[in-house]
Amino acid sequence: MKSPDRVSTGLKGLDEIIDNLKIGDNVVWRVDDIEEYAFFVRSYVSRALKDNRRVVYMRFAQHKPLVKQHPNVRERAPFMYSTVCPICCRHGPPI
After folding, report:
1. Which one, 23, 42, 45, 95, has the greatest CB density within 10 A?
2. For 31-73, what is each residue's pLDDT tens digit?
3. Cα separation of 1 and 80, whole Å?
4. How many CA atoms lie within 13 A of 2 on its CB side?
5. Where are the alpha helices (DSSP H) in 19-74?
6. Where along the chain do its domains lie?
7. Closest CA to 41 of 22, 57, 63
8. What's the Cα-to-Cα distance from 9 to each of 2, 29, 33, 39, 63, rounded to whole Å?
9. Contact 8, 40 (CB under 8 A)
10. So what's the pLDDT on residue 81?
């Protein structure tokens, strides 16, 4: 049974390798093409929405959004670090 503090990446094989994501994990991807990253983002968001979880999408680059509009997705475009912390605190438990 999966622990309640763990969530799926949306990719079964990746979940098995990393034992799912733990709430609060920082995930960093280094890619040469935004579409490589988009594959993982879309898989994660799709699974999160199926699990009825809230998604807060923050985009720091000028590329087109990777997450489609959905009632359970909140898109934020922070302009500086001082805006990120209040958004995270409003949408999740304090760290």
Report:
1. 45
2. 899 999 999 999 999 999 999 988 888 777 777 888 888 888 8
3. 40
4. 14
5. 34-50
6. 6-91
7. 57
8. 13, 13, 20, 11, 22
9. no
10. 54
